[in-house]
Amino acid sequence: MLHKYNYLTIVILSTLLLGGCNWMSEISDVATDTEDYYVPVQEYKGEEYTLPNGKKTDRIANENREEIEKAIKSFFKEEYKTEVKVHNIVGNVDGATVMVESIGEPHFYTYAIIPIDTEKEIVLKEKVWSQEMAIESAIMTGIYGLIEKDKFDNLTNLI
């Protein structure tokens, strides 16, 4: 008799295991439209991007958005002779990470970091910086995209 209960338990558990998660995929298909959720990496502008410990600096950055945009645009103009437009500003532990897109050619997306003094709640606009080779790498990628435009267009069509 105990043997029959073991078989029954195994049958019920295996049925739940094999078929139990099937309903979840149906719900996720309805809940999110993948067309809206995914974007090609070449077109990602930093929406919905967050960094740890950035709530306070995020608030300060959003309150000073115009000042930050002006400082970032000035930084790219002086350091890289490039005009950019700001897409997103995200607070981080010591400042704000600013996602930008170049205007004109070479076309690229990158970011810069602007420090924020959280005690005085001021943006240190003269101290804009970026991680080593982050901007340079983005510019080189944009130039490579210009040189191999036909190949990248063909790849995009294949995908």
List key phrases describing it.
159 residues; flat; 4-stranded antiparallel beta sheet; 51% helix; 7 helices; single chain; alpha+beta
Strand content: 15-25%
The mean pLDDT is 83
Parts with pLDDT < 50 across at least 5 consecutive residues: none
Bin the helical content. Answer: 40-55%
The largest sheet is: 4 strands, antiparallel
- H/E series: HHHHHEEEEHH
Separate helix tally: 7
Please state the structural category: alpha+beta
**Strand order of the biggest β-sheet:** 1-2-3-4
Distance between the termini: 58 Å
Question: How would you sum up the global shape?
Answer: flat
From the alpha-carbon coordinates, what is the Rg to the nearest angstrom?
24 Å
* Subunit organisation of the chains: single chain
**Total beta strands:** 4
